[in-house]
Amino acid sequence: MNMAKLTVHGDDLTLKSILEVLPTEPERQWRKGEPKGAGRVYLDSGFELLVAQASQAQVLPSRIRSYLSECRSRGVTFSMPRIVAELQFQLAGVASPVAASTPLDLPLGDLAVFSEMGISLSLTTHS
Fold this sequence. Notes:
There is one protein chain. By secondary structure, the chain is α+β, with helices and mostly antiparallel strands. It has a single domain (2-126), classed as Alpha-Beta Plaits (2-Layer Sandwich). Helix content is 30%, strand content 35%. It contains four helices and seven strands. It has helices at residues 12-21, 60-73, 97-100, 108-117; strands spanning 2-10, 28-30, 35-37, 40-41, 45-54, 83-92, 119-126. The protein has a five-stranded mixed beta sheet with strand order 2-5-1-6-7. The protein has a two-stranded antiparallel ribbon with strand order 3-4. Strand 3 (35-37) and strand 4 (40-41) form a beta hairpin. The longest helix is centred in the middle third of the chain and has 14 residues, at 60-73. It is globular. The N and C termini lie close together (10 Å). The mean pLDDT is 89.
């Protein structure tokens, strides 16, 4: 399955104000100082939410556009001091040469929206 997840971390008050107006609930949340494994703790609070999911990667951009459009209509932005937002693409491994030729296209308009909203990108493939 191909997914786009948004991970946001930073200042508690700002995170709270963002969470209050997001169109969906986070899948996971953490607080500054909570244990995160291997004897380490989170240095700041944050959350992770599913933005889009599809069996075909080329469907993700339109679903992401819809989600971010809803966020913008609610006044959500991540370009605030002390907030870091990252959109993580998790793409399924390629099972056939035909699937390998299907690109995940992000037009300049999409990249501009990510930039305006303060969202960086991360890409991971898995089999």
